[in-house]
């Protein structure tokens, strides 16, 4: 096994944080991972590194999951059942699906990260969540080295949430994800405001998967920073759900507060709006800051440390709480 020493993780996390791994190994097969688990179990797993904030050097053996491959398991008239290995880039898989006319994930175009991590936080954007296309998740149990299957139901998916962030956190390594995608009568989801606006200018009558994917790419490129240019981890916080009574109070003071009704008692408020109203949008603090076009995204202008970004997040949390009495929950995995 090729274990390397003192490797910078700067290129392995989308925030571009420069911390070191004392020992580092890249694995490209399930077999290799199982062999590794026979000699060492206390591992730090990294895949696309798109949902983590590294704040210090990593003492554990860092394992980069680089298991590649896409296979079509079964096809019928309506659906394709596809297994994708964990190390495949998410957006490349979306583009491959769109090019092959497999529908269901086109709204999730351009989300950073790899396929193996998409179930952990149940990635979602523009009215679609990945849980709606996942049939099962294959993972290795760290304690035994055995391969285990989680059905969609067992994954216990919720808004930016799953069993992998809760009950079984740190106990499994996801090795592949199985999807059911449509081959015809695609469930085209263009109702999200920004997509409608983007498509309206194009005069398209019959929407294809490619049209939706292109629209989402255009919206994301206009609002969200490209991690290859400015380090970031997408939305840093979750959109908070608050009591309707609390929301009505808020509305008296801020009549234009955007909201989505969750139930009669609960309302979701966009964290980006709260952070903007708290005065942080586009503000720079040393080497890090809040993105100028989407306040939910914290950015690294080059040399920020993870701790600096974490401190900025705390400051935002405190200010938003003082102003709105809403406690923002961090969505990104903080590695302390
Ligand atoms: N808003 C502001 N100011 C801002 C940002 C947003 O006022 O700086 C307002 C917008 O005007 C709009 C509302 O907030 O009324 C919602 O904004 P947007 O459509 O940009 O979406 P979001 O709720 O901020 C969520 C996801 C994104 C996803 C978009 C589109 C979460 C935590 N974030 O953001 O996901 O791309 O919807 O579906 O749910 C991610 O998770 O990394 C991510 C980027």
CATH class of the largest domain: Alpha Beta
Strand content bin: 25-35%
Report the uncertain regions: none
* Class inferred from helices and paired strands: alpha+beta
Mean pLDDT: 97
Oligomer description: single chain
Give a quick account of the main beta sheet: strands, pairing sense, barrel closure. Answer: 5 strands, antiparallel
Cα separation of the termini: 28 Å
Largest sheet, spatial ordering of strands = 6-7-12-10-11
- Beta-strand segment tally: 20
Q: Note the overall shape.
A: globular
CATH architecture classification name of the largest domain: 2-Layer Sandwich
CATH topology term of the largest domain: Uridine Diphospho-n-acetylenolpyruvylglucosamine Reductase, domain 3
Specify the helix fraction band. 10-25%
Summarize this structure as a short list of keywords or feature phrases.
336 residues; alpha+beta; Uridine Diphospho-n-acetylenolpyruvylglucosamine Reductase, domain 2; Uridine Diphospho-n-acetylenolpyruvylglucosamine Reductase, domain 3; Uridine Diphospho-n-acetylenolpyruvylglucosamine Reductase, domain 1; 5-stranded antiparallel β-sheet; 28% strand; globular
């Amino acid at each position: 096994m090729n274990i390397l020493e003192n490797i910078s993780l700067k290129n392995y996390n989308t925030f571009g944080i420069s911390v070191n791994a004392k020992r580092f190994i890249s694995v490209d097969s399930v077999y290799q991972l199982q062999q590794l688990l026979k000699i060492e179990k206390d591992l730090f797993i990294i895949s696309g590194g798109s949902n983590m904030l590294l704040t210090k050097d990593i003492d554990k053996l860092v394992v980069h999951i680089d298991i590649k491959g896409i296979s079509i398991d079964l096809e019928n008239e309506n659906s394709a059942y596809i297994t994708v290995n964990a190390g495949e880039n998410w957006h490349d898989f979306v583009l491959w699906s769109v090019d092959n006319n497999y529908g269901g994930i086109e709204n999730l175009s351009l989300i950073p990260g790899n396929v193996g991590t998409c179930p952990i936080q149940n990635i979602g954007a523009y009215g679609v969540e990945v849980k709606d296309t996942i049939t099962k998740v294959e993972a290795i149990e760290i304690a035994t080295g055995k391969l285990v299957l989680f059905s969609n139901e067992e994954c216990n998916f919720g808004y930016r949430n799953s069993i992998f962030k809760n009950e079984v956190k740190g106990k499994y390594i996801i090795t592949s994800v199985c999807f059911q995608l449509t081959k015809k009568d695609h469930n085209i989801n263009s109702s999200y405001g920004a997509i409608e606006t983007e498509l309206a200018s194009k005069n398209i009558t019959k929407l294809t998967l490619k049209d939706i994917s292109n629209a989402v790419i255009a919206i994301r490129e206009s609002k969200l920073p490209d991690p290859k240019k400015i380090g970031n981890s997408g939305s840093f916080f979750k959109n908070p759900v608050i009591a309707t009574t609390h929301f009505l109070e808020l509305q008296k003071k801020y009549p234009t507060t955007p909201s989505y009704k969750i139930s009669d008692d609960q309302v979701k408020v966009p964290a980006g709006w709260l952070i903007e109203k708290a005065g942080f949008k586009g503000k720079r603090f040393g080497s890090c800051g809040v993105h100028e076009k989407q306040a939910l995204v914290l950015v690294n202008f080059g040399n920020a440390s993870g701790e600096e970004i974490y401190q900025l997040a705390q400051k935002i949390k405190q200010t938003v709480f003082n102003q709105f009495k809403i406690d923002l929950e961090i969505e990104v995995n903080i590695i302390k």
